[in-house]
Write a structure and sequence with these properties.
The protein is α+β, with helices and mostly antiparallel strands. About 15% of the residues lie in helices and about 35% in strands. The strands form three sheets. It has a six-stranded antiparallel sheet, covered by helices on one side. Strands 7-6-9 form a three-stranded antiparallel sheet, with no helix packed on it. Helix 2 runs antiparallel to helix 3.
Length: about 160
């Protein structure tokens, strides 16, 4: 048993008790952070208003999963677009350009998780940056640290 796994403990977390963060102005609840799982996993509930969602992006170091709790979304992965709703599970392998947006008329919620658990630390870093002022250079540094890229219209990556 390693020191990391020795510190692991069972957890039960309700969405009401989960830590609230607001990276990019989006409402998120951290259900399990990477520290709670020895870095293997992190889980977040994301609340999206109509029209909200990230631009096309990719992660070089993690797989990302989405489970739709509420709402209707346009999900794009590697150029394939789908409309999805409650009860739908989406798997996005690392290095896959993907995006999603709430195309419904009401707020929606997604359960999002990554393996390994590096999305929560990424979102926390972006959230914490807002306390000192949103800065594109600082965001570029965060994107590099967390292997996240936003390709331009021609597919060229911006970190």
């Amino acid at each position: 048993m390693t020191a990391e796994t020795a510190a692991l403990a069972p957890r039960i977390v309700s969405v009401e008790d989960a830590e609230r963060i607001r990276p990019f102005g989006l409402d998120m609840r951290v259900m399990l952070d990477a520290a709670a799982t020895g870095g293997t996993f992190s889980a977040i509930v994301v609340e999206l208003k109509p029209g909200e969602g990230p631009p096309p992006h990719l992660h070089r170091d993690r797989e990302e999963f989405f489970y739709v709790l509420d709402g209707t979304y346009r999900m794009t992965g590697d150029g394939h677009e789908s409309t999805i709703g409650p009860g739908t599970l989406v798997f996005t392998p690392r290095n896959t350009v993907h995006s999603f947006s709430n195309i419904g008329t009401t707020p929606g919620r997604l359960l999002e998780w990554t393996i390994p658990g590096s999305n929560e630390p990424y979102f926390r870093a972006v959230h914490d940056m807002q306390g000192v002022g949103f800065d594109l250079e600082r965001l570029a540094d965060i994107n590099r640290r967390f292997a996240t890229e936003f390709p331009d219209a021609h597919g060229n990556p911006h970190r």
